[in-house]
Design brief:
The complex is a heterodimer.
Chain A lengths: L3 E4 L2 E5 L4 E7 L3 E9 L5 E7 L2 E5 L2 E6 L4 E6 L8 E9 L5 E3 L3 E6 L1
Parallel strand pairs in A: 2-11
Antiparallel strand pairs in A: 1-3, 3-8, 4-5, 4-9, 6-7, 7-8, 9-10, 9-11
Chain B lengths: L4 E3 L2 E4 L5 E6 L6 E8 L3 E9 L2 E5 L6 E5 L5 E5 L8 E8 L9 E2 L3 E5 L1
Classes of the chains: A mainly beta, B mainly beta.
Chain lengths: ~110, ~110
């Protein structure tokens, strides 16, 4: 059983579309992270959430602690948003990190 | 500030050999975590070091070990390499080591075991 589940696994969108990626987790967490990984491997931390909602440019991340669920939204998607988006949680017992399997996003011009 | 750096970026080894990977955190950061990424298993947590002490360890065999130096630079060692150890190894640093601190990832070391 995976501690973190993401959906969808793959997503193709037309430029300009609104995109939602979902993440559900089963462990108690200290924080949830959304990561972006471009081809070649480099990972960038997009958001770290422990409650509520955060916005950065066209990206919005929300978390519902009671439902153990988070969403990453991309408004007005652009081809440069094409990447793998990974949800990760830091557990509140010990210092473990658990990762989702990632959502591969392709935005077509 | 310079970002997290990892050396080498690419490495090819054969089964049975051992390998040491290096990670230099962002200046002032005291926590370094190591992760393994494979196509089959995705990203998995290896261990975290804070102020030269291992704080936690993921579910990996004892062939995987690490250490941290007084300047916060960290090394990861894998002994008796297996084909399945082929992966992208990422390290990440954060400032205070508090769990809710943002992690900054390095570019990774891609290890191929033949």
């Amino acid at each position: 059983k995976n501690e973190v589940e993401q959906s969808p696994q793959n997503l193709t969108a037309q430029e300009g579309e609104f995109i939602t990626i979902n993440c559900s987790y089963s462990v108690g967490i200290s924080a949830l992270h959304w990561l972006q990984q471009h081809p070649g491997g480099g990972i960038v931390s997009l958001f770290m959430l422990s409650s509520g909602k955060k916005k950065h440019g066209r990206l919005i991340a929300t978390i519902n602690i009671q439902e153990k669920h988070s969403s990453l939204h991309i408004t007005a998607s652009h081809p440069r948003d094409s990447a793998v988006y990974i949800c990760a949680v830091g557990s509140n017992t010990g210092n473990q990190f658990y990762f989702g399997t990632g959502t591969s996003l392709t935005v077509i011009p | 500030k310079a970002g997290v750096t990892q050396t080498p970026r690419y490495l090819i080894k054969t089964r049975g050999q051992q390998v040491t990977l290096s990670c230099s955190p962002i200046s002032g950061h005291r926590s370094v975590s190591w992760y393994q990424q494979t196509p089959g298993q995705g990203l998995q947590f290896l261990f975290e070091y804070f102020s030269e002490t291992q704080r936690n360890k993921g579910n990996f065999p004892g062939r995987f070990s690490g250490r941290q130096f007084s300047n916060s630079r960290s090394e990861m060692n894998v002994s008796t390499l297996e084909l399945g150890d082929s992966a992208l190894y990422l390290c990440a640093s954060r400032g205070s080591g508090i769990r809710t601190d943002t992690q900054y990832f390095g570019p990774g070391t891609r290890l191929t075991v033949l």
